[in-house]
Structures are given as C-alpha cells and as structure tokens.
C-alpha cells in the first residue's frame, strides 16, 4: 500500500509499505470530478498537480490527518499507479480492506456547503442537511464500501468543516440509503443476508459497468480479480459464483455450530442462572485478564461439577455485550461423550467457523487452502496442520479487533489434546488483541502444560471457594423455589430441601443439579422421606442412585442399558440402542423405551433421540466404582453381546439396494436419507461391530470360539451379507473405517493360527474392500458391479455373490484366477505422481505429484490423511525415523512424523540413503544394486516412481494414481 505524507516544505511524498508493515493512516472518501481535475500518481511523482482542482482535497486530507495526530494518509486519485495494471488490479481487490483498516476516514462532500450552518446558527434541522441528503456521494457505487467498511467515518463540507460522523448522522444516513443503524454502528456485514446487502447498492452508479460488481466484493467478503471488458453481467456472474463458493467454504468449515452447542448445553443443564456466574466478572483474576494487555490467557480450573461450563456460558454472554459488535467472540465446548466435539481439530474448526461467520473477510485465509483441497482438508485425520496454519494467519490479520477465544473443558478433548494445549500455549501470546479463556478440571497433565504458558492468569474455583459457595447457594435457592412452585411444596418441605442441599452441596453445582433432578421425579409426599437418601459427594450420590436402580422392577434391563451405553464408541440413538440390547427388542413402544431411559435418569439424558451421559463423571463412575454391578460378567461379555446382536440384526435387515437407488452409478453425494431410514437402527452396528469383537480378550474369545470358526456367526454373516454390508458402509460414508475393520478382523482370525475356509474368506473380503474402496465409496451399488465383475475368478466373495452380478452384462470381462499383487489404488492426485515414500513402520505412504501437492496416506485403509500444498516440484522425498523429508532445490522441508507440521530447515542433518526402487528398461523393478525383486504385470508399468518397505511396494503413476502392492503375494 502506498501512503502519502506531508513534507516540511508543504509538498506530499509517497511511500510504499508491505502489507505487514502499514502504519496507522487516514483515508479519504470523495466523488471524482473529471479525470483531468484529479491529481494523479504521475502528477505527484513529477511534482505537478498543484493547480488542479483536486489538489484541495489532498491538502484537506493532509491537514485533517495531522490534526488527528497521524502521519500517513491515502487518497485513491494519487496513491495508485493506474498505469501499472497489476497494481491497479491489486488496489481494486484491496480497497475494502484499506478502508476498513484506516484509523480515520474523512468524507469530503464537495456539494455540501456549511455556510448555511453559519447563517442559520443551529436551526433545526440544519440547512445543510438538505444538501447532504442530495449529495452525489450517496449515489456512487464505490462510496458504499467507504461508508460501511471503516470503523469511523467523518463527514466534511466543501469548506472543510466537520458535519458529523456516521454514528451521529445515522438517522439521516438511514433515510438516504436505507442502511440499518446496526451496520453503521459496526455490526458484521455477514449478519445481513445477501439480498439485503444487494439492496443497499440499488440506485448507485459507477463510471465503468463492471465496477458495479467489483465495488461489492468487500461487502460480501469475497475476492474478485477485475477483468474490465467482461461487462456488468459477466462481473456479476463471477461475483455471485464467488459468494456461493464462500458460503460453501464457511459451511464446510463447520462440523458443529458452537452457538447451537451453547444453547443445547444451557438447555440440558436447566438454563443459565445469571446470579450464579456473575461473581466472576468482579473477580480480581478475571479483571486482571480483562484489563491488562499483558494477560492474554485466563485459565479457569476446578473439580467436576463446580460450574466451569456454565461460568463460561455466562462470560461469553457478557463479553458479547461488552464488545458491542466491534470485536469478535468465538467459543467451543468440548464434550468427551460426543465424538463430534471431542477432538482438537473440531475445536479449531468451531472457533474458526465462528470467527469467519462474524468477519467473512477472514475466510480468505481458509480459501487459500480450501480452494485447492476442498472439504477434505477439514476432515483428513491430519486436518490439524492445515487448520493451525490458517488459524495462525487469521490471528495475524491486521484488521482483527478485540478478539476473545474461549474453549471449555480441555479435559474433554479426547483426541489430540497435547496438540491443542501446545497450540493454545503458543498462540495465546501472539497478539495483545487476542485474548483466550480455557477451562479444565484439575488434571496434572493439563496443568503441567498450561503452567509453562506465559501471559496467563489462573483462576482456581477451589481457591475462590467463598464466591463459588455463594454462587452455589444462589443456585440452590433458585432451583428450590422453582421446584416448590411446580410441585406445590409447603413451607416446611421447601425449607427442609433448601437446608439439606445447602448443608451437603460442598460447593458442587452438579451435585445440587443431580439431587434436584431426582426430587423433580419424586412425589411431594415422599420428598422429606427421600431427602436423606442423597449423600453428599458425587460418587456417593451415584452409588445411592445405583442402589435405587437396583430396586426397580426393571433393574436388570436398566443395568444392561447402562452397560451398553458405557461401552459404545459414540452416543447412540434410541433405535440403535434397541438393536444392541436384546431385551429392549421386546419393547416395541417408543414411549416405554423413553421411560426406561428415564429410569436411568440419574446417569442418562435423552436429547432428541440420542442418549448421552448426564455428565462425564457418571460414565466414569459406571466404568469404575459400579463395574461389578453393571458388568457382572465383565466388560467382554457386554462387548460380545453387542457383537452378537449387531450380527443378528444386520443379518436380518441388510439387503441389496437399501435406499432404492437402482442405478449402479448413483453417486453417494446425491443420496438423500429416506424419511423412514432402513439403516436407522443399524448404523452403529454396521460401523462398530468389529471394534467390539476386537475388545474380547483371549479368555472370552476362547469361550466364544465357535464364533470365529467355519460356519460360525461371523463366517455366516460374511458369506450371506458381506456385499450388502459394504453397500451399507458406503451409505453411512464409512468405507475407510470398513477397511480398517476388515484389517482388524483379518489379524484377529489369522492370530488364531489355523488356516480355515473362514480365514480365507476374511482375507478375500479384505482384499476386495481395499481394491474397490474408491468405487464403492463413491457409488454404493458398485459393490455389486465393479466389485463383482472385476474381482478375480477364484475370489470367494465373487463366488458367494454370483447371483448379485448385473444381469444386463452378458459378456463378462476376462479376469485372472486370483488376486494380483496390487492391494489398493489410491486416488486423489490430479496429475502425474513422481515420487513416493513409505514410512519405516509401513503405516504411511507419501506421494508427490505435479499437481504440486504431497499426499500422506494411511497405507492400511487407503485413506488420504493429509494434503500438503508444496507449491513446487520436489527433487525427492523420504521418511526417516524423525519424519518425512521433502527435498526442494532451495533446501529441505521436514515434516515431523508425529505432528506432520511442516517446518522449513536449511539442510537435513544427514543425507538419508536412497532406499527406493528404480525401473529398469525392460519394465521390471530392480533395486539399486541391480537385483531384480519383482516383475510387474504390463498394465502397471507406465510408472514414474516407487518406494518399498518390508513387503510392500508403492508406485506412483502418470494418471495421478498410487498403487500399493503386496510383494509377498
Ligand atoms: N450459572 C449457572 N446457572 C445454571 N446452572 C448452573 C450454573 N452453574 C452451574 N450450574 C449447574 O451445575 C451443573 C454443573 O455445572 P457445569 O457443567 O458448568 O460444571 P463443570 O465444572 O463444567 O463440570 P465438569 O468439569 O464436570 O464438566 C450444571 O449441569 C448446571 O445444572
């Protein structure tokens, strides 16, 4: 950006600044006169232009800038070299940002005179207002963004007298432009829908047709390179395209909307009570964090149930009020029992989603990567890397105002917590504009890491016992008063409940909440009798509740439900639960089912149709203290029951074409889930039955030995339902998980030693899912087309499912006898793959392509874990024990094996030995010492690169595919 400064001799000089080093500056907004009247860049560089009418504006802007204590200012007529096309294009794309980031914006209204102000001596309304209303400034296209982008906009008359600013004149401006007050007060533009924003530009004109669209790019938070000559229609079409791409990108960032999570949490926890969190706002540590620019991280810690989550809900509400639309508040609530929101990646996605929703211009940092990699970049197992890079860029954005980032329950981040802690520690001191709050239980691991973080303030709930105690007391009073009203308690009952709760709560909100939950289900006449049965302390209370469940008529059923819910890998729905717990099968009635969950109400809660634990501590209790009661024959028994039920219900229900798609090429992305979804009960079973099977220990496996033998339940399921299961996995978007499951099943059955027909079937089925992953994943019915037609003649699955092969194919392709050496084909690169490398443990395969990306694959599941945009062609790649090294002509980029975070280093500590294979002229693969290791079938020969580890061979080819071969086969 080029800025102006007034020199001592009264002239103006121009200085160019890089984006990272722009000093505070003022900016002029005006309407252009004839081109010949304006002072140009050329004029200024040649010391000319003083005699032009436009010089006065520049002079005014310089004067006003100095008066406001600034040194630099910007005027569009002379700060852009319009002869330089690249610069001009860059300026058009940056203009909104330049206005938004200006410390001051002066609007010079050449057609509004303030002489009428003097003459009138404060009449009401002032006479200049009618000129103001008619000013040309409100009719031009570009001035729309000049009005809405800057924080402050001051209006001056042609005599250079201040008339007011966009806040003091908001009513007049609203009448002229119909732009709502909130916009003028700085509300994020994204709060206003596209049509409304388009309406603001109605009746505005631009000199060039295309500018009508170009002048709106900042208003919609998109980037549009100008192509003058394309016409207004072309420019608008591109603008609309960009807007829809932006919307898609924002949509794809989000895996959950933290605003909905917050509402849900508050709702399921019984509603937020202000009087129980308000104490924190006056707390000395909170105040220090809030007011001191050096204190950027507030760490709230406390034992389970002390009210941390609700405290954060309250703080979020208060911060949102206090920043009054000018800053950003972004937050995330981790919940261990919900796999959508218990990973480090989900946290960053959630935070990022709320940031870009409030300030769409930030999406540019996302688009840099997203446009290249698409939605998968948020979903790859290592999306973490991409997200941390984006986040780092976002936090450095110069336009970011006061920003608050809040993460609740770090202890409930199940996947990659160390990475998240490391990220928070590093980034919480990056910018004084960005402040963080994190909360967690008193866990030593987390404490150790956060203790090392600088610029933090610690707020321990245990060390603020008095405040927490008063807050709990208020909570008790509110809860009891609500119950007393609802259940019509007499005074004695109400006072007794109040007293009992106050005496036994031990400053733990959750204990109070749990007791109240129980009392709400207790008849008024029994309340006093029952009161003493709630012992103080969470564990004692859970124990007591377990005893109460033990006395129910449905005690056994409730325990079975609790046992299954405690062992499943994600929260399940009521329907999925019925599939897993045999005895529930007899309860056909939805109402009765809900009643059973209600009976477990001290531990479980139903949200819509999904069952959750009331609290993580409830699950912990069942798995530890109550294990004997809930798992009387051990956890393995419950795992086995889940497997048995899953197989039974899948065998009964799975069939060909569950969604009535008919066409084998029906793409999975076009499929709409039917209202009455035949997979609703099966989804969990389909995805996780193998995992439960693999939880069985040797003793348990021995006692169920028949299951894994020829003719056993698993064998029969594979024989009769395997392809239908693959179709279902595809409908559940879980084919990669299916591959991992089949690998697990294969090693489980192979580990049992003897080779049986069943072992062979599992091997064959595993090969088939690996080989046809791509086809089945994108079109579920390909399980019966490609997978049957092109698998080897002696494939067991092919033989078992002959009856399912497409009837319309009369001449079957000639296939080989058995599976060839190619295990799987990895698809994703869009150009030739010129380098491949295996990790030493053979779990990862990296491939580099002329599409300028390096992809890292899970060599077992074939899933693409990460796409690195390297932007250049590499010379070579190799893994060593420390990580992946990418060799470029300008040094090495190393990728750490565990973190997969690229860092640039100048040289590699030692040049690793090249261990790959090379292609000999006759098409055979030879090692470096010229010893032949493998002949490849002709079809695989047009290859470009190869790597080998153990008995696996990876080959990258011209089509962009990567093949993995089993060399032992
Ligand atoms: N300000 C409040 N308003 C309403 N309810 C509250 C408030 N504070 C705490 N509670 C009640 O106390 C319960 C426990 O609070 P919360 O979940 O915030 O504790 P926590 O410290 O985050 O617990 P954990 O670390 O175990 O997750 C909530 O379920 C809610 O019922």
From TrEMBL:
It comes from the Eukaryota. WD repeats lie at residues 826-867. Residues 296-516 form the NACHT domain. PROSITE patterns: NACHT, WD_REPEATS_1, WD_REPEATS_2, WD_REPEATS_REGION. InterPro entries: HET, NACHT_NTPase, NPHP3-like_N, P-loop_NTPase, WD40/YVTN_repeat-like_dom_sf, WD40_repeat_CS, WD40_rpt. Pfam families: HET (PF06985), NPHP3_N (PF24883), WD40 (PF00400). Keywords: Repeat, WD repeat. SMART domains: WD40. Gene3D superfamilies: P-loop containing nucleotide triphosphate hydrolases (3.40.50.300), YVTN repeat-like/Quinoprotein amine dehydrogenase (2.130.10.10). This is HET-domain-containing protein. It comes from Mytilinidion resinicola. The lineage of its organism: Eukaryota, Fungi, Dikarya, Ascomycota, Pezizomycotina.
């Amino acid at each position: 950006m080029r800025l102006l400064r007034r020199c001592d001799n009264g002239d103006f000089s121009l200085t160019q600044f890089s984006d990272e080093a722009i000093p505070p500056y003022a900016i002029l907004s005006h309407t252009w006169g004839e081109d010949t009247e304006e002072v140009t860049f050329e004029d200024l560089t040649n010391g000319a232009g003083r005699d032009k009418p436009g010089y006065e504006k520049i002079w005014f802007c310089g004067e006003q800038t100095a008066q406001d204590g600034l040194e630099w200012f910007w005027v569009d007529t002379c700060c852009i070299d319009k002869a330089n096309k690249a610069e001009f294009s860059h300026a058009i794309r940056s203009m909104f940002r330049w206005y938004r980031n200006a410390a001051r914006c002066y609007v010079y209204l050449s057609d509004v005179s303030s002489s009428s102000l003097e003459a009138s001596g404060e009449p009401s309304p002032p006479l200049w207002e009618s000129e103001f209303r008619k000013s040309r400034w409100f009719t031009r296209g570009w001035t729309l963004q000049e009005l809405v982008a800057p924080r402050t906009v001051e209006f001056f008359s042609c005599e250079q007298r201040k008339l007011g600013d966009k806040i003091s004149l908001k009513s007049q401006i609203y009448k002229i432009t119909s732009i709502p007050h909130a916009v003028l007060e700085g509300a994020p533009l994204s709060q206003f829908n596209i049509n409304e924003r388009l309406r603001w530009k109605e009746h505005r004109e631009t000199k060039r047709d295309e500018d009508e669209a170009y002048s709106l790019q900042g208003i919609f938070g998109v980037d549009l390179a100008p192509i003058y000559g394309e016409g207004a229609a072309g420019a608008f079409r591109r603008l609309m395209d960009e807007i829809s791409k932006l919307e898609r990108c924002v949509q794809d960032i989000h895996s959950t909307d933290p605003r909905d999570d917050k509402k849900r949490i508050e709702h399921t926890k019984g509603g937020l009570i202000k009087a129980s969190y308000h104490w924190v706002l006056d707390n000395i540590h909170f105040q220090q964090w809030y007011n001191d620019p050096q204190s950027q991280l507030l760490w709230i810690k406390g034992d389970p149930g002390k009210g941390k989550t609700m405290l954060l809900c309250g703080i979020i509400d208060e911060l949102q009020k206090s920043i009054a639309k000018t800053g950003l508040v972004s937050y995330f609530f981790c919940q261990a029992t919900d796999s959508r929101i218990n990973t480090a990646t989900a946290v960053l996605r959630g935070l990022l989603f709320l940031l870009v929703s409030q300030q769409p211009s930030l999406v540019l940092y996302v688009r840099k990567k997203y446009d290249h990699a698409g939605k998968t970049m948020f979903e790859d197992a290592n999306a973490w890397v991409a997200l941390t890079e984006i986040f780092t860029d976002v936090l450095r954005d110069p336009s970011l105002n006061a920003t608050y980032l809040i993460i609740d329950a770090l202890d409930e981040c199940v996947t990659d917590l160390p990475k998240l802690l490391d990220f928070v520690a590093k980034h919480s001191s990056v910018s004084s504009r960005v402040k963080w709050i994190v909360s967690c239980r008193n866990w030593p691991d987390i404490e150790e890491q956060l203790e090392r973080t600088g610029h933090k303030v610690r707020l321990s709930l245990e060390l603020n016992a008095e405040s927490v105690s008063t807050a709990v007391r208020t909570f008790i009073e509110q809860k009891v008063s609500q119950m007393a009203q609802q259940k019509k308690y007499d005074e004695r009952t109400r006072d007794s409940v109040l007293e009992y709760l106050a005496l036994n709560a031990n400053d733990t909100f959750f204990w109070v909440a749990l007791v109240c939950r129980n009392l709400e289900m207790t008849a008024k006449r029994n309340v006093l009798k029952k009161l003493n049965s709630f012992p103080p302390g969470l564990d004692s209370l859970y124990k007591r509740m377990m005893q109460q469940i033990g006395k129910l008529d449905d005690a056994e059923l409730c325990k079975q439900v609790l046992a299954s819910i405690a062992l499943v890998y994600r929260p399940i729905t009521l329907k999925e639960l019925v599939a897993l717990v045999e005895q529930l099968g007899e309860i056909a009635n939805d109402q009765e089912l809900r009643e059973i969950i209600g009976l477990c109400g001290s531990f479980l809660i139903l949200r819509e149709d999904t069952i959750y634990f009331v609290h993580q501590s409830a699950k912990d209790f069942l798995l530890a203290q109550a294990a004997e009661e809930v798992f009387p024959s051990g956890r393995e028994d419950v795992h086995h029951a889940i497997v048995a039920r899953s197989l039974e219900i899948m065998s009964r229900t799975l069939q060909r074409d569950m969604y009535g798609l008919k066409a084998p090429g029906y793409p999975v992305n076009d499929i709409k889930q039917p209202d009455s979804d035949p997979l609703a009960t099966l989804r969990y079973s389909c995805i996780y039955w193998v995992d439960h099977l693999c939880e069985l220990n040797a003793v348990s496996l021995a006692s169920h030995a028949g299951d894994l033998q020829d003719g056993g339940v698993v064998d029969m399921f594979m024989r009769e339902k395997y392809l239908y299961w693959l179709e279902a996995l595809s409908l559940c978007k879980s084919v990669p998980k299916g591959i991992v499951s089949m690998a697990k099943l294969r090693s489980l059955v192979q580990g049992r030693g003897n080779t049986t027909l069943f072992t062979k079937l599992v091997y064959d089925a595993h090969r088939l899912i690996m080989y046809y992953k791509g086809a089945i994943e994108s079109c579920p019915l390909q399980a019966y087309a490609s997978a049957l037609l092109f698998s080897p003649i002696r494939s067991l699955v092919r033989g078992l499912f002959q009856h399912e092969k497409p009837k319309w194919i009369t001449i079957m392709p000639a296939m080989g006898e058995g599976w060839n050496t190619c295990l799987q084909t990895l698809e994703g690169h869009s150009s030739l793959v010129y380098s491949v490398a295996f990790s030493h443990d053979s779990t990862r395969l990296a491939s580099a392509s002329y599409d300028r990306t390096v992809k890292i694959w899970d060599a077992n599941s074939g899933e693409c874990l990460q796409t690195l945009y390297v932007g250049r062609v590499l010379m070579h790649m190799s893994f060593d024990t420390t990580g992946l090294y990418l060799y470029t002509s300008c040094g090495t980029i190393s990728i750490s094996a565990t973190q997969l975070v690229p860092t640039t280093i100048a040289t590699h500590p030692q040049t690793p030995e090249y261990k790959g294979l090379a292609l000999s002229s006759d098409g055979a693969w030879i090692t470096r010492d010229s010893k032949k290791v493998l002949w490849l079938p002709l079809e695989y020969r047009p290859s470009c690169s190869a790597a080998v580890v153990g008995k696996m061979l990876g080959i990258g080819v011209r089509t962009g595919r990567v093949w993995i071969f089993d060399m032992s086969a």
